[in-house]
Amino acid sequence: MACHTRSVSLPTRSHLFLQKAEEELIKLRACVGSSLTYEIMLDALKAVGCVYESINELLCMSSNQNGFSHMQHRRLVEQELEESVKLLDICCTSRDNLDTIKYHVQDLQMATRRGDLQASKSKLRGYRLIVKKANRDVKVQKLNKNEYPEGDSLAAVSFLLETREITISVLQSIFVYLAREIVSQKSSKWSLVSRLVEKRTIACKGDAACLRVNVEELENGVESLVRHLIQCRVSLLNICSL
């Protein structure tokens, strides 16, 4: 996604929020374009949250809210409000899928502790299926790409369009990362299970435990993102009620 340069004459405080959002978006594009690691995925979720926090501050400022009195501008806000429902649904579904994945990893961890290879294979198969479903749940959702004219009062709303698109990319990247994490790059799809069950080293036993913690942290990151989206939606509703 190309970086857009805007020329806006916002009040100083508003300009600071706008600048912060732009900086976080630049970080996000770098994260999505990088090799997928747990740290990068977590940083990306935090960066998305920071963007929405800045956007919400812009939406809440009375100077911006007054600029939405124009009928055309109000329609654009209403369109964005409609899209926010779709994005919120995608994020909630992703959060719930991560919760399910976490319990699959926990079951896998218990099976490998018992040294039960067949049960471990079954749990791993379930993990792979739910990760595949989670990725598909994100991909099948289609969001409209509304076009917004430049203007001081529409700066926050236009940012929502860019952030919406990159949020979907981040969610997709998370499940691509999780799909790769369970499989060894050089051997069969059961390689992790084989190492956990047959070698029984302390390091191998920690693999599933570490993955469970990572999934839980990613789930918490998406939950935090959901809260930011709800705040932005409330601000959009307040604008529509002016």
UniProtKB/TrEMBL annotation:
Q: Which Pfam families match?
A: BPS1
InterPro entries attached here?
BPS1_pln (IPR004320)
Q: Which domain of life is it from?
A: Eukaryota
Which GO BP terms sit in this record? root development; shoot system development
What name is this protein filed under? Answer: Uncharacterized protein
What species is given as this protein's source?
A: Rhynchospora breviuscula
